[in-house]
Amino acid sequence: MNDSTITLPWLVIREDDNGNRYRVGRYATRAEAQKIADSLDGRGHKQLYWVERLGQNGSTVAHD
């Protein structure tokens, strides 16, 4: 785990209509990540956006 993992633990994830998932960005706070996810979700596309937090071991933990 590196410094950016510790300082930017919140991820915005996008899933397209084919089930492919992509990391959109990493953020310092959940509020910041949620604001981005909400903004992208509000564009009316078929993609889904959500926020996840990186765990201590680098794995993601889903948050709604």
TrEMBL record:
The lineage of its organism: Bacteria, Bacillati, Actinomycetota, Actinomycetes, Kitasatosporales. It holds the Pfam family SPOR. One of its GO terms (molecular function) is peptidoglycan binding. It comes from Streptomyces tuirus. It comes from the Bacteria. This is SPOR domain-containing protein. Residues 11-41 form the SPOR domain.
